[in-house]
């Protein structure tokens, strides 16, 4: 006997009759739930962060003393190139996409991401790309040794490891494009009733801008590495001077991708800091609309500055002037953001839990990275700094103290919502201070090394650089151990600790936090916002 169901019955079943998520491995392989996929992204990115960190510690161990200690120079260069690629495409970018997957639907009142199956595919491309990237070490002649930038003509002469890297970059780039499309459509189409664009949380705004950046730049990188592939195997001469090509053209194409890419890795961190600072200042964010416009300005200007990476290639003075002034101009919207964060804290009712410590640490150390960026923006001085450890110091101040501190701030802020438990505050603070101090011990001396003329990507160096290299190496090992401490003392106990050792978080563990994500229970249920909330 069959019974007819009315559309209302079917609607009710659809709304409230969800099956529980499948258990075991299949839940994670086939999941289309934005929270599960966000968790997968975060696990993958932390794994790659550890792998890239091991490469970095191997580099620092080699540089502890002059002379060759452990590695041949060729293998040293393979480590340097792979460290950069693993950290950028394997650790930082997937971590921010993990945050986007988890938080954007919760913050805009959406039931899930717009394209759930595409979301699953865009994640599972990443482990394939990661295996290709790290597997290139086992290719004949080893991994590519042309640096993370893969400059021609070095990259056209490498062994098969270079091809592994090219395909890995293609696969990870495709994943980024799919993720970006998904994020844009979700934010534009799935906002809760009443949530206009100018009511979006800053994290969502920064990700919307970032997603447009990704769609614009990832095809450019794909074009650059495809031309490399053709030069290597199909007889073309895009970058070969002997065949009428130009190796400098590779630099132009690469950096047209590469400079906006820097902002892909920092804008979502700006969004996280713009959520954390008001929550722990117990004040609304100062200058909300100016923060939105500053983020958009940074994204637009980032397309006009690529050749500041190339001041030493022999470009005309007029080009140098244009790129110099355009680069300095980017400091203005970035300065607006720093000013607004400080103005938000001014006369606020501040408390210094771990998310706020990482946010303040971010503002302090990222600003230092920005100031050295201004020094590098000036063509006459950049000719002195170019290719030295000063550049290494600068971009680690921007990317480690920027992206990574932003990610840790966001993890400490939102993890109670993800797990339903509060992390151990004392251990969180220990992690912060270990990270903050060891980071500066590692990378600040590199400014001195660079100013004294120590070139980067060299396995050996002159004896006068020994002292600061030793300081940097000790700092690097402490920094690495601090992240192991975070994993075993903070993260794993939060997810898998005994109930009696953990404190329930409640819907909102932070009394100053605002936003839709704090209106749902902790941990956030598997299906949230089946009935869209109305934003007043």
Report on the architecture of this protein.
With 536 residues, the protein is an all-alpha fold. It contains 17 helices and 2 strands. It has a two-stranded antiparallel sheet with strand order 1-2. The model is unreliable at 1-17 (pLDDT under 50).
User: What is the count of DSSP helices, taking H or I runs of 4+ residues?
Assistant: 17
Strand content: under 5%
Could you tell me the radius of gyration in angstroms?
Answer: 24 Å
CATH topology of the largest domain: Cytochrome C Oxidase, Chain A
- Please write the CATH class name of the largest domain: Mainly Alpha
Which homologous superfamily in CATH is the superfamily of the largest domain? Cytochrome c oxidase-like, subunit I domain
**How would you state the average pLDDT, rounded?**
92
Secondary structure category: mainly alpha
Based on the coordinates given, report the CATH architecture of the largest domain: Up-down Bundle
List the topology elements.
Elements: H1 7-16, H2 25-30, H3 34-62, H4 73-108, H5 116-135, H6 154-157, H7 161-189, H8 202-233, H9 247-264, H10 267-281, H11 288-301, H12 317-345, H13 354-377, H14 379-385, H15 389-419, E1 421-422, H16 425-451, H17 466-496, E2 503-504
Antiparallel strand pairs: 1-2
